[in-house]
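Risk register update: the risk of archive-format incompatibility is retired. Evidence:
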Amino acid sequence: MRRLRVAAGLDVALADTVGFVRDLPHELVAAFRSTLQEARDADLLLHVIDAADPERSERIAQVDRVLDSIGAGSLRQIAIYNKIDRTAEEPHIEYSADGLADRVWLSAQTGAGVGLLRDALLGHFGRDLARCQVRVPARGGRARARFHEAGAVLAERAEADGGFELEIWMRRPEIERICREEGLEPPTAAPCLAESAFLQSTRFSNVGNA
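Archived output:
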């Protein structure tokens, strides 16, 4: 398990599974599959694929069969086609009909396209992220500190009365919760613009055969 900060104030927990092996000895099948059970609890599966493997379609089907067998076949996946440095592919994202990233083509070796994977994750989880202006009065030092501790403050401006106007980039429910608990006026809908590129603290698993 590893925690990854994708953007200010929002983290993800990464859980790496074992690789997939064809023709696994019968006596190891149960133990092998038991290591994959946590995939059922993931919010998103990252299926890492060797883009240069001539048998990649067969390997993808094999992974999908195992996921079906453990009850994880219906979970959302992003297919990560790695090793494009060994192919003629350029780094790019392919999107599904619902506008979310479906496939990301990259090279972990050269770093080409790795930023696109981050964009894909942000787009997948960031639908309730908002960029807002929050006014913190002079007495609201604790509220200001909480926003800073969350890494959500993009900019701030001191005001003549000792207060601050903070530019916040954070999940809208979290902004409203802090404002409520600290007695602040929550930002109205108009100046609080939703962002598609952000990620809530959550879990997803990395499954693959590359």
